Amino acid sequence: MQQLNLLLTSLPDGLLLGFVYGLAAMGLTLIWGVMNVINLSHGPIITLGMFSTFFIYTRLGLNPYIGVLPIALVGLLLGILIYTAAVHRVINGPHLSSLLATFSVNMIIIGLGTAALTTSPYNVDFSAGSFKLGNATILGTRIIAAIVTLAFTGGLYLFLYRTRPGKFIRAVANNRAAAELMGVPSTRILALSFGIGTMLAAVAGGLIATFFPFSILSGSGYELKSFVIGVLGGLGNPIGALFGGLILGILEGIIPAFIESSWVPVIEFVLFIFILLVRPSGLFGAKK
Amino acid sequence: MKRSSTILTIVLILGLLLAGCGGNPPTEKPPEPAAPTQVESSVPAQEQPTTPPQPKEVTVVIGFTSSLTGAQEVSSKRQVNGLNLWMQQVNDAGGIKLSDGTVVKFKAVTYDDESNKERVQELYTRLITEDKADFLISPYSSGLTAAASIIAEQNGKIMITAGAAEDDAYKTGNTSLFQLYTPGSQYLLSTVDMLKTLDPSAKIAIVHENDKFSTAVVEGLKPYLAEQGFEVVLEEGYASDTTDFGPIINKIVDSGATVLLGGGHYPDGSTFARQLYERKAGLKFISLLVAPADSKFPELGEAALGIATSSQWELSATHTPEEAAALGKEFYGPTGQEFAVAYETMTGDKPTYHVAGGYTAGLILQKAIEEADSVDPEEVRTALEAMDIFTFWGGVKFDISTEAHGLQVGHDMVVAQWQKNEVGELKRLVIWPADVATIQPLYPIPSP
Fold first, then answer.
1. What is the three-class DSSP state of B105?
2. Which residue of A has its CA nearest to B239?
């Protein structure tokens, strides 16, 4: 009974955190789905989003949520820049080439970030209040982050299914050669896709900064979670990533109710291997 | 003839231009250094026999790594700042003068260990074999120090360990390690003594980082809590990179605990404190390791209020010559106030115990060299083993038994808590032991 009570207390927390995990993973899985590139610069981009929120809040004195749209825009442009500078030339090469290219971007961002910001922890001392739901304390920051995530997910869905560039992205993801024959400007569409992927990662980072302290090295943990979520939801399926994120968030919320919390990553990665073995297309299917 | 002289002129001009550009060819003879005899010749001949012999100067190389990046960055930088201040002061004062007239000065050789154990071992090997370090100072944190201590011991190099409280390294037959900090197993005992007077019926939750140091602290804490009759209602470890403490806080609340003892290092401790506040955990007392002892901690704002920590040293309860005299011990080095003023002048920041530890590590090496009247490692080792002194840091005495050689046995902890002063500023104040406390404990801590 006590553990059931603890489980119910931890569930909403995990669920709300899962929304943001899902948003971060959506960016990774979109890039994989469209261009078969595993973006190893995903973690540092999340961290850049965190620092953007920090500077917006502490240096400019603005509400951190005002920064969401500028962070999204900068994330989009940064992604297009990374694609153009590092990924485009190797996109038709073996997977290892694009993997190493994005890993290099990862190292560059971490190196520059360490030089400029050190690896000291930073903290956005912002509170959006809290309220009690039964025994659970629900934090305002997590509610807002979940709403922002839903807004971005809805926006992404509409963009992919209701706009011309979105349809182009889906066409390129399905069959790039055929799309090019139909006149789709694939290079620009790939750059746009990479930009949207990094935009989602940066926004997720900006929201996470309102929950937890962070340092320039914090992104790697969220990058690993994004891989697990991508596999859960189906690599290449951005909407599935949201559900994958919710599953991971719930697991992180409820596992510590039964066993020591340091077992959480062990269970997450056992699940990762299990899904890869028994359902490689993910729980919610992946791109064909 | 005219043509050849024109060519010669052009070659000469080009040659002059090249020379003017500083592009000396490798074969060119380098400029000769000023001959020592020139200095001697300026001295009048009749004065030469009366010139006293110049004292021999020895430069002792102190090798250590610092975590300029990674998880230990904040505390490690402070420790290194303290050590650098000591070195600067002793060198500026003309070094240590031995009885044979030798002047000993110090030089630091250091690398960034990136808070990484593998890197620590590689770098300490380099410090010993390539940089020829004479003495070593440990990196910050028990985990990194355990890695470095293996290399120091293998090479028989004396290592003063600062910023490392874990006990195990001294119980494996090592003879080259000398611990400055109070051992981890005794870290929270003063806090338990205080709780015994404040609230003997407190229910304790122990939640700690799963690392060497924090685990050693908890291993020392549990039997003492049982001995003092406290009920432990929850014991939980967490990974060093934990960011979401929500589920753990839910467990603490669910367990009915009234007091939380635990934590680990700065990143996790500051995150834990913030989330305890956000989630209104409703605990009467919270004591976390390391993080609340840092001057960055009040950046958490209201979340810092009431959080206590066991501290190796606090300026407001610094140890004094009078205290040493009362114990019949020698007081060595500057007073706490002198040290704090020098540190603030150097960095503009107030010293934490990490800084004081780094400074004292150098200070006790200085004292050992003075006592040994030599820089010979064996004689310095003997002097360290015989050491029983007081500094502003407190007592310094090492266990010299074979079971725990080098373990610190002369130093005591204080308990400090973040409280607001009369103008509402957060200050870390000493609340225990009662004889050095500057304020009463805030118990229970106010609810958010």
1. strand
2. A262
Contact list, A140 vs chain B (CB under 8 Å): none
Q: What is the pLDDT of residue B429?
A: 93
- What is the domain partition of chain B in residue ranges? 57-182+317-397, 186-311+413-432
Tokens 């791109």 correspond to A287
Q: Which fold has domain B186-311+413-432?
A: Rossmann fold (3.40.50)
Residue pLDDT, tens place only, B260-304: 999 998 889 999 999 999 888 989 999 999 899 887 888 888 999
Q: Kindly state whether residue A126 falls inside one of the protein's structural domains.
A: no
Cβ of residue A250 closer than 8 Å to a chain B Cβ: no
Rounded to the nearest angstrom, the minimum Cα separation between B300 and chain A is: 6
Q: Is residue A271's pLDDT more than 50?
A: yes
Which chain A residues are Cβ-neighbours of B241 within 8 angstroms?
A: 221
As a whole number, mean pLDDT of residues A153-159 equals 94
Range name among A103-117, A174-188, A271-285 with the lowest pLDDT average:
A271-285
Grouping H, G, I as helix, E, B as strand and the rest as coil, residue B360 is helix
Question: Whose CA is closest to B165, among B354, B3, B394, B352?
Answer: B354
Q: Which residue of A has its CA nearest to B249?
A: A10
Instruction: Transcribe A78-127 into DSSP letters.
Output: HHHHHIIIIIGGGTTS-HHHHHHHHHHHHHHHHHHHHHHH-S--B-----
Kindly list the residues from chain B whose CB atom is less than 8 angstroms away from the CB atom of residue A125.
Answer: 274, 299-301, 303
